[in-house]
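Minutes, project check-in

Agenda point 3 was the complex the collaborators sent over. CS summarized: two entities, 208 residues total, and the question is how they sit relative to each other. Sequences were read into the notes so everyone works from the same version.
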Amino acid sequence: MRALQHPAVEDVELSTVLTALADPVRLRIVAELARSGGIVCGQFDVPVSMSTLSHHLKVLREAGVLRVTPQGSYRTHELRWEEMERRFPGVLDSITRAVTHTAV
Amino acid sequence: MRALQHPAVEDVELSTVLTALADPVRLRIVAELARSGGIVCGQFDVPVSMSTLSHHLKVLREAGVLRVTPQGSYRTHELRWEEMERRFPGVLDSITRAVTHTAV
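CS then shared the predicted structure for the full assembly.
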């Protein structure tokens, strides 16, 4: 499996992170990841096809929001929580809480 | 001057707010408003033309992020801080703090 690119957190810009999060499906993905440890691609509870899901996961990965780790023939996805909190304190935390409490 | 539309805060969706904020110029506008009370349109310190600034302010107003109040021949702009904090606690606060501390 080809190695996946992840931006260094210090190169990530706030507008890029917000662009990645500004989508109802991606907000649901991020909220699910915030509740869980790591999730394998096929286990997300979102009403989209696998190819659309893959696109959304790519957008979030390229924005520095999540890390993808190949494990055999699967990929595990997890939020880069500590790195994001260090660079943009409270942003990911408040947004994932807001997803849980409101319609997105 | 024509009355300006402002959405009810309970109708505002998180993805709409994040879409409005996911732009470097609009992040600067919001950070300036967070530091000040209300700002008249021509006083924003952003490197764009007045017509582009007006567009950005309209996007933020329609997303429920700011309130525009006509005052004579001017318009005063202020964040809808309390309403946004009530609906999405910590989101606007953490984002405006992050703008101040990082490149956007």
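Noted in discussion: Helices of chain B lie at 14-21, 24-35, 50-62, 81-87, 91-101.
Follow-up: revisit at the next meeting once the mutant set is ready.
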